[in-house]
């Protein structure tokens, strides 16, 4: 079975069986009809994915890998904050009339900072260090910029990446303050696994471990029946990821450079409501 399925089953089961409900409190998120969107949550779920073993995409339901890659390229490659440069409509609810989500996500990665070696934005600094100083313990990004929070239409959920080279393997830690387990968990795992593969390939490393740390891992009230239904599915074997080996420049990757061989999955059978 897919190892990503094993982890999701364990984490989701833990939330449903042992999680804490916020039903007695006023909450910011709401459903499309205006009803408050309450959650059951667990604090500090930590998951490890060995990317050299298999690609961590779940089979309990389909994860739209193409759209997930398009989004990670939008953030890390284009360093954009405008939904008009994105091929999906996931972020439309947070965009203004110009398409901007404010000073969030890709905008933060594109801000240049001054270092002893010169001026870099956060992505280019990672690329520089992986090439010139791979043994550094300071290779990281952080887009939770308190000085700019008032200019963000939403605060970053996945906000920090720390990279660590061990031998020939590139490992990474993804930190998230909050995670909607049904709509976003495997989506984020897949896209940041792709990011590790991209950075590894262009710097001559192998993809190692992705450690995913979620401070508030939650399932929304209207999602619980859907998650319970998913947990009844029999996990299927993980597919094989293929990456175009000709790409040696991080900024030259395209969505079509990534394909999955043998991706089988269970159909959820209904549209997933999204809390905003």
What this model shows, in words?
The chain is an alpha+beta fold. 26% of the residues lie in helices and 24% in strands. It has one domain: Thymidylate Synthase, Chain A, CATH 3.30.572.10. The strands form 3 sheets. The protein has a 6-stranded mixed β-sheet, with helices on one face. A two-stranded antiparallel sheet has the order 3-4. Helix 2 (65-76) crosses helix 5. The model has no long low-confidence stretch (mean pLDDT 97).
Features:
276 residues, alpha+beta, 6-stranded mixed sheet, two-stranded antiparallel ribbon, 24% strand
Task: Provide a quick synopsis of the model.
The protein has 276 residues and is an alpha+beta fold. The chain is built from six helices and ten strands, in the order H-E-E-H-H-E-E-H-E-E-E-H-E-H-E-E. The strands form three sheets. Strands 1-2-8-7-6-5 form a six-stranded mixed sheet, covered by helices on one side.
**CATH topology call:** Thymidylate Synthase, Chain A
- Our count of helices gives 6
- H/E element order: HEEHHEEHEEEHEHEE
Secondary-structure-derived class: alpha+beta
Lateral arrangement of strands in the main beta sheet: 1-2-8-7-6-5
Principal-axis shape equals globular
Estimate the helix proportion, in percent.
25-40%
Strand and helix layout:
Elements: H1 3-18, E1 20-21, E2 39-50, H2 65-76, H3 106-109, E3 113-115, E4 118-120, H4 122-132, E5 140-142, E6 158-166, E7 169-180, H5 181-202, E8 206-220, H6 224-231, E9 240-243, E10 258-261
Helix pairs in contact: 2-5
